[in-house]
Write a structure and sequence with these properties.
By secondary structure, this protein is of the alpha/beta class. It has ten helices and seven strands. It has a domain of 130 residues: Rossmann fold, CATH 3.40.50. Strand 5 and strand 6 form a beta hairpin. It binds 3'-phosphate-adenosine-5'-phosphate sulfate. The site of 3'-phosphate-adenosine-5'-phosphate sulfate has 10 residues, from helix 2.
C-alpha cells in the first residue's frame, strides 16, 4: 500500500508493557470495535458500556492506530483513555480502523491478544449511510459526495457497471478489508456482529 508511511515505528508489546501507568490508572484497551464505518459501531459501543465492568472513552480517542495519532506515541494514547478499576476492561471504538490496511499489523504488534469486534450491516444500506453522512459533513467541504448524486458516483456510465473505484463503495466490500485482519488475527479472535 503506497499511500501510507512505512517508516513509522510500530510499537511492540514490550514497549506497551513498559509504558508507565499514570496516577489515574488509565489502561490500554483490551478490545477494539474496528468498524465498519456507518454499520452501528456507536450503538454497539453504547450497549457494551452498559456493563459495569466495561469502560470506553466518551468520544473516539482520535483513532490512535491511524498515522496522525499513532505518531504521537503511547503516552498520548493513554491520556485519551478512561481510568479503570481493578475488575474493569476498556474498549475503544474507531469506526475507521477496519478500512485501513496498515492498522491490523499495528494492533497485533501492540497486543496480539486484542479482542476484535466488527459490526457489519447490509453493504448497500451502509453505503447510503456513508454517502449521506459525507454529503452533509462540514469538515470535508471538498469531498466528491458533496458534488455528485449517489447515482453519478455509484454507476460508471461508460462501462454500464458499478463504479468499484468509489471509496465509499469500497468500504462496503467487507471481505477485502477482512482479509487484511485475518493476516494477523485468528478468526476466533474476531467477533463479527450482525448490525441489521
Ligand atoms: N441500535 C442502533 N442505534 C442507533 N443507531 C443504529 C443502531 N443500529 C444501527 N444504527 C445506525 O448506525 C449508523 C451509524 O453507524 P456508526 O455508529 O458506525 O457511525 S460512525 O461510522 O461511527 O460515524 C446510523 O445509520 P444511518 O441512520 O443510516 O446513517 C444509525 O442509524
Amino acid at each position: 500500500m503506497p499511500w501510507f508511511n512505512r517508516s513509522i515505528h510500530i510499537f511492540t508489546e514490550t514497549e506497551v508493557a513498559n509504558e508507565p501507568r499514570d496516577v489515574k490508572n488509565r489502561a490500554f484497551p483490551h478490545a477494539l470495535i474496528i468498524g465498519a464505518r456507518k454499520a452501528g459501531t456507536s450503538a454497539l459501543q453504547d450497549f457494551l458500556k452498559l456493563h459495569p465492568q466495561i469502560r470506553a472513552p466518551s468520544h473516539e480517542p482520535g483513532w490512535f492506530f491511524i498515522d496522525s495519532e499513532y505518531t504521537k506515541g503511547l503516552g498520548y494514547y493513554r491520556t485519551r483513555l478512561p481510568p479503570l478499576q481493578e475488575n474493569q476492561i476498556s474498549i475503544e471504538k474507531s469506526a475507521e480502523y477496519f478500512h485501513f490496511p496498515y492498522v491490523p499489523e499495528r494492533v497485533w504488534s501492540f497486543n496480539s491478544s486484542m479482542k476484535i469486534l466488527l459490526i457489519v450491516r447490509d453493504p448497500f444500506v451502509r453505503l447510503v449511510s456513508d454517502y449521506m453522512f459525507l454529503k452533509r459533513y462540514d469538515k470535508a467541504p471538498h469531498c466528491i459526495e458533496k458534488k455528485y448524486t449517489f447515482e453519478e458516483l455509484a454507476y460508471n456510465f461508460t462501462t454500464g457497471r458499478v463504479n468499484t473505484r468509489w471509496a465509499c463503495l469500497k468500504r462496503s466490500v467487507y471481505f477485502v478489508w477482512f482479509q487484511e485482519w485475518l493476516k494477523f488475527f485468528p478468526r476466533e479472535q474476531i467477533l463479527v456482529v450482525d448490525g441489521d
